[in-house]
Amino acid sequence: MKKKFDTARVSLVSSAHFVHDLYTSFLAPLLPLIIEKLSLSLSQAGLLSTVMQIPALLNPFIGLFADNRGLARWLVILAPTMTAVPMSFMGLAPTYGVLLVLVFVAGISVALFHVPSPVLIARYAGDYKGRGMSFFMTGGELARTLGPVVAVGAVSVLGLANFHYVLVVALATSVLLYLTLEKADEQTAIKRRGSLKDAYREIRHVLDPLAGILTARAFMHGSMGVFLTVYVEQKTNSLWLGGAALALYEALGVAGVLSAGILSDRLGRQRVMFWALVTAPVAILLFVFSSGVFQVLMLLVTGFSVLSTTPVMLALIQETAIENPSAANGLFMMVSFAVRSLAVVVVGALGDAFGLDNMFIISAVTGFTAVPFLFKLKKNNPAPAGETI
Q1: In the chain, what are the domains?
Q2: Which end of the chain is more exposed for a tag (fewer CB within 10 A), N or C?
């Protein structure tokens, strides 16, 4: 008998993802005001984002803690408020040192939310984990799209000194999560002694190939997500067109994230990933070598395909990690963070050395190397009967 899809709870956790990530997206739009207030250099301002991401290295340990203590539900409940507090009070930071502490604390809370929340999604999604992960990731993508608009609007109305009042939305979200999410963790009282070694052993036949796929995809993700605006501005001498291109790319990313997981429940995980991983580098190459309406079309296809594989990979991890779901997700997220951070640096260096056109070409060619890892994943984790790539 198929396990049902709990639409209400999946939608609630996905909405909480939207609210949570809305606050983390406030840093970039508020930076100009913070720079002016504290007289920061651009290097100091850039370090804030790096400091905020450092706690991602703790993801596996947070997952292990959540598994062993049965605290996934509590971490998801508390994290939106725990993130909102430091992000909402950035405008009141009296010194740069205090600001660094605030973004570091926010980074810890970000990890506390993102590691266990897919575990709850997988539980509530039943046999439709792909659909659940699509809902979940759509919440995060929408937050990154709308967050800057919300931040600018709020600071325009409240001012930087009163910006902290925006945290009331996060408080309300945490209360709603507490009242709605089932208390399965407390009832089962796991209190076990799992380890990261156990978690890795359980998912290594999936995680190892996914690490290769993540690395190849990171070059495409990094080149388009970070340098698309610069590329378009150089080609058109219009910063507005650069921003519009990035908005289109992100918007189609939302559509891709929402669609891929749902399709993977019906068509198979590997099949959906195969088409996304082949389409993305082809679309990037065509984007570089084309112009006009066709170039815009290829930009849309790139956004849809490059960003769409994450919910499918999350579903694969949760289907595999029966005994250590949070720790397994923590390992996956740590690998994703590490390769993405490294790829952005390498892609930037390629752009400096060979120009942005060649940087996109090299990133696209690198993207094709994901396909052999996908076949290795298929070999190690056989598809259901009747599924072929």
Answers
A1: 7-188 (1.20.1250.20), 196-380 (1.20.1250.20)
A2: N
Region of residue 234 (phi > 0: left; psi between -120 and 50: alpha; otherwise: beta):
alpha
Q: Which helix (H) or strand (E) segment is 100 a member of? A: helix 96-114
The residue to which tokens 């388009």 are assigned: 224
Contact indicator for 310, 273 with CB cutoff of 8 Å: no
Give pLDDT tens digits for 253-291. Answer: 889 999 999 999 999 999 999 999 999 999 999 999 998
Tokens matching residue 49? 């984002």
Measured CA to CA, the distance from residue 42 to residue 39 in angstroms comes to 10
pTM of the complete model: 0.83
**Backbone phi, psi, residue 4, to 5°:** -70, 155
Q: Six-digit token pair at 213?
A: 């796929």
**Per-residue pLDDT reduced to its tens digit, 186-201:** 443 445 567 888 889 9
* Residue burial 374-388, b: 16+ Cβ < 10 Å; e: rest: bebbbeebeeeeeee
